[in-house]
Amino acid sequence: MAGSPQSRYGADSATSNLSSRTSGTSFFSRNARSNTSDAPSSLYGSITTSSRGASSVSNRAANGNAIASVMRKTAQPNRAQFTPSSYPGITNLAIASQKAGYDSVAARNPDIQPTTQDRLQVQSRTVSDAQYKRFAQYIEEQSGIVLGDNKHYLVNSRLSSLLLRFKVATIDELINRAMQPNIYKDISSAVIDAMTTNETLWFRDTYPYLALKNIILPELARSGKTPVRIWSAACSSGQEPYSIAMIVQEQATTMVHVDPNQCQIIGTDISPEMLDRCRFAHYDNHALARGLSAERKARFFKPTKDPNVMRVDDKIKQMVTFKQMNLLGSYSLLGRFDVIFCRNVLIYFSNDVKSQILNKFSLCLNPGGYLILGSSESIQGLSDKYEMVRCNPGLAYRLKA
Ligand SMILES: C[S@@+](CC[C@H](N)C(=O)[O-])C[C@H]1O[C@@H](n2cnc3c(N)ncnc32)[C@H](O)[C@@H]1O
What we know:
Number of helices: 17
Number of strands: 13
Number of domains: 3
Structural class: alpha/beta
Distance between the termini: 38 Å
Bound molecules: S-adenosylmethionine
CATH architecture of the largest domain: 3-Layer(aba) Sandwich
CATH class of the largest domain: Alpha Beta
CATH superfamily of the largest domain: Vaccinia Virus protein VP39
Largest sheet: 7 strands, mixed
C-alpha cells in the first residue's frame, strides 16, 4: 500500500485493467450458452520457532496448520516471519491475529513465542490524551474514519499489535511515526489499515442481492446495456463482490440472456491486507458459515488441501477485479458503473465526507444507475442526486434523470 497521502487518495490505472474482459458480445446474448467454468519485513516482528526449528514450521504448513501455513522461513535458522501478504494459507486465525495482535497468535500456538528481547521493547500500550487527539484528526484526514473523543481503548487494542512488528516501544511513538508517511511509509500504511473495521459476510442482509436479482439485473437485461459494471466500494475481504458474482452466475442459469462474461465487478478497499485476502479468495470454515447456503458453498467453492479452507471457484473469481482505493480520493479512473454497492462504511464517516462521497458516486453512475447502501445508512440530508426505490424488501437509490 502506498503510504503517502496522495497515493492513498488516488485511484490508479484501473480502467485499462478493468475493461480487459469486455468483448463485443452482449451481456444479454440470446444464444444459449454454457457457464464459463469454473509485510513489511515482518508483521509481528521476529518470531522464534520451537526447538524443533524452522523445519517443523514447514511440516506443519504441509499439514494445514493455520498459523504455520502463513509463516516463512528466514535466513536465520531458528526464526520465522509471519507474512499474510505472502500466502498461502491465510486463514481466519491469521486474520484475527492481525487485528488482535502478536500476543494472541503466541497464545494459540506454542511454537510462536516472543523473545525476551521482543517483550522488553514494548514499554506502553496506552495512548496519551494529547496523542489521541492528534491521531483522531490524522485518521479522519487520511481515511475519513471518525474516532470521536473516547475511543482510546480502540486505538490501544488496534495499534498494540504493531509495536512488536515495527519494534516501537510505545503507542505514542508509533503514532508519531505514522504521522510522517514520507519517512515511515510502512508504519503509516499499517496504522491506517489497523484502524479499519473489516466485518463482512456473504450475502449480507439478503435484500441487496434480491434487489440485484429481481429488479436491477432484469432492468439491465431489458435495456441491452453491455458490459454491465458493478462496483463494490469498501469490499473488505471479498464476500460482497463475490456474492454479487454468484448472483450473476445464478441468473445466467435461470435467464439464458444474462452473460457473466459481460459483467465486470470491481472490488476496492483502502486496506491492502484485505485486498490480499480478496485476491487469494480462500476462506476458512468460520467465514464460510456466515451467510452462505450449503447449495452455494457446493456450487461456487472448491476444496483445498486444508479441510478447513475452501477457495472461490475460478468461474466466480475471474469475474472480479480488485484495486486499492481510498473513498476520499478521486474515482475518475474507475469509469462508469451501473450499480454501486457501498455498504457499511459510510457509517464511519462525518456527514460532510458522506455527502462528498455520495455526490462523487453520482458522477460515476450511468444514467438510471443504482446505489445500494448498508441497512443502517441513508442519503437523507446528504445528497439530492438520487431517488429512493423501494425493493420490498429493502431499498436502493437510483440516480435521478
Ligand atoms: C465494515 S467493512 C464493510 C464491508 C462490506 N461492504 C460489507 O458491507 O460487508 C468496511 C470496509 O471499509 C473499508 N474502508 C474504510 N475506510 C475506507 C476508505 N476511506 N476508503 C476505502 N475503504 C475504506 C475498510 O477497510 C473495510 O474493509
